[in-house]
Amino acid sequence: MEEIDMKLRADGVQKKVISPGKGELSTFPNGTKVKFHYRTSLCDGTVLDDSRTMGGQSKPMELILGKKFKLPVWEQVVTTMREGEVAEFTCDVKHTALYPLVSLSLRNISLGKDPLEGQRHCCGIAQVHSHHSMGHPDLDKLQANPQPLVFTLEMLEILPPGSFQMEIWAMTDEEKLEVIPQIHEEGNALFKSGDISAASEKYYSAIACLKNLQMKERPGDDHWIKLDLMITPLLLNYCQCKHLLGQYYEVLDHCSSIINKYNDNVKAYFKRGKAHAMVWNEAQARADFAKVIELDPSLETSVAKELRVMEDRIRDKQKEEKGRYKNLFNYSSKASATASTG
């Protein structure tokens, strides 16, 4: 361990063991999966990120060694740890310059967002030196003024290659494209079983993966279009889940994005029409349903059914409001009578 510590110090990393682990130190061949909790702090003790509380949940970090993670120093330091060990690593700025980007991705993931949301399509070094806001004041400050950071890690599990199923984020681009149809089918199976939330997460995972691949292509190129045609049915399934979960405005946003690219997509118009109906946008709903019939006259019966449902809801709402105003008027009349006899 002394030799390992000397190598770390020579490379600008100081290690302090807080709690020793158990067993022998692994050899950590490429493909090893490590799970650990992390807390990232400035040298003055200010905490930037904590995997135990990020996004209101406790979710450990998972790394597969040899996959060229954006923060190479994490791959370096975890290979000095045993299972159960807690250690503090103070790392020079040469190791931490890209941390704002890594942190942004981790924060997005913890909130269920696209990991690359808020990042520009350029290389990491260019991003670090740009003046583009990351949407988090602490990360903006760190981006403008890179400094040493302290990583407190707790090693939870070390899994040798072949002992676990590879997760999609750790796959090569080719492996991701191969597994997308499987994830799509898993989402469909969950939907059919009635687990709408889990199905939604499956579809979202596949969509985020394909969008990340799409970012590497020039918009409009053949491969970009091929990826977009894979995204569209997944996004429509995702919208179906969101509609059933009552998240109608998200359905409106996603369906509109599809229609802006493919203005003959009947399913997008139909789902957007239903979402408009649910948020009382009667005129927009009727326009979308009319477009559905124009594109596919065989759906006239389905559209008529949706229009009846919308009209019934509108009538019920009008009756409810009429009753409310009537009661309000009666209350006002009684209050006036009471005041005049008082």
Automatic annotation (TrEMBL):
InterPro entries named among the record's database cross-references: AIP/AIPL1/TTC9 (IPR039663), PPIase_AIP (IPR056277), PPIase_dom_sf (IPR046357), PPIase_FKBP_dom (IPR001179), TPR-like_helical_dom_sf (IPR011990), TPR_rpt (IPR019734)
Pfam families per UniProt: PPIase_AIP
Signal peptide as annotated in the record: none
Residue ranges occupied by any PPIase FKBP-type domain in the UniProt entry: 31-90
Keywords for this protein: Cytoplasm, Isomerase, Phosphoprotein, Repeat, Rotamase, TPR repeat
EC numbers for this chain: 5.2.1.8
Lineage top rank: taxon: Eukaryota
Subcellular location: Cytoplasm
GO MF entry, a single one: peptidyl-prolyl cis-trans isomerase activity
Catalysed reaction equations from the record: [protein]-peptidylproline (omega=180) = [protein]-peptidylproline (omega=0)
GO annotations of cellular component type: cytoplasm
UniProt keyword annotation of Isomerase present: yes
TPR repeats: 266-299
Function: May play a positive role in AHR-mediated (aromatic hydrocarbon receptor) signaling, possibly by influencing its receptivity for ligand and/or its nuclear targeting.
Record note on quaternary structure: Interacts with RET in the pituitary gland; this interaction prevents the formation of the AIP-survivin complex.
Protein name: peptidylprolyl isomerase
Biological source species: Carassius auratus (Goldfish)
Gene: LOC113071246
